[in-house]
Amino acid sequence: MYLGITPSVTCNNSSRNEFSLIPDKNPLVEFVEEFPAGRSSLCYCSLLCGIIRGALEMVHLAADVTFLQNRLKGDSVTEIGITFLKKPDEEKYRWKK
Fold this sequence. Notes:
By secondary structure, the protein is an alpha+beta fold. 18% of the residues lie in helices and 24% in strands. The chain has helices at 46-58, 90-93, and strands at residues 7-10, 18-23, 63-69, 79-84. The chain has a four-stranded antiparallel sheet with strand order 1-2-4-3, with helices on one face.
């Protein structure tokens, strides 16, 4: 929302604890022309994974967020994988009447 992109969501997991976000465009790609020599393993877009993980932690959801595919690395799409590490304790966050 803050970056002005709307990703599509795919979920191919039967346990429903992981899904993928596929943004139509990656705003960070516009600022990268070419990787420095000897630094092809850099992932400039890891910033997005940190933003998503931090936002999930703010609402008490532990998650592993990683890039599965990246256009900067030559893939056809950018895909961010999100896996929830544990279920939230519903009793802890339930409103008390």
